[in-house]
Amino acid sequence: MSVRELVVLGTASQVPTRHRNHNGYLLRWDGEGILFDPGEGTQRQMLRAGVAAHDLNRICVTHFHGDHCLGLAGVIQRVNLDKVPHEITAHYPRSGQRFFDRLRYAAAYRETVPLTEAPVDADGTLARTPGYTLEARKLSHPIEAYGYRFVEPDGRRMLPERLAAHGIKGPDVGRIQREGSLGGVPLESVSEVRRGQRFAFVMDTRLCDGVYALAEGCDMLVIEATFLDEEKELADEFGHLTAGQAARVAREAGVRHLVLTHFSQRYSEPEEFERQARAAGYEGELTVAQDLQRIGLPKRR
Question: What residues are annotated to the active site?
């Protein structure tokens, strides 16, 4: 049975608090696990959330500010300690290669797992698998940063009433799916397009074209909301979004489930983030993320 969910390991920006660990997010996509922005404490949060090193297939780092990457050293060493039996691929801004190298080899350990470095230096497609296409878009932050987007290929949904009208049943249903037609009946006549799911991960950034490109048509958008709207000028100065800005992006992009995260230490109550997001006109499903929360992707349209 396929599982698609977001496991929230940490939600704090810049510094952790009593109730928020540094950033860390695991996307379970069927049989794969994609770890985003492992900040300090990620290895312990994985343990608390029931996430094993063996669950990881990719690591995606948006940028090299400490709250998004300082846990990378521990995660990489844990992957090797546990002798994960498959290759792991790491994506990160190429301009931060020196930081990645320092984190990868921050201390002595025995390398037992192939770790493929796949740095990002431009918008575009990073990987294609049978289950998804992984894309990156540049964001607007004081240092180079990229957001990530997963797009499932479109499929087809069989329509029982049309199959019955053409007398297609039993093994012939699978046959028309495989061959594209059966007895002069094209697949398109007995099915409809089933839109693939879309997931985007957007961290530290001002509003920019990349934010909208990543969010467009997403079933789930995980996006930073470091500040409340009263601090809009401060957010822009330091390359961040407010709750209202993030929600307006989601509204305009047609996002089905909005997940707000990456909160400044100055805020202790989540209710105001939700209120401002709703005030910005977002009417879809909304989660103000909490550490160790599990959030399922919406069912396909």
Answer: 67
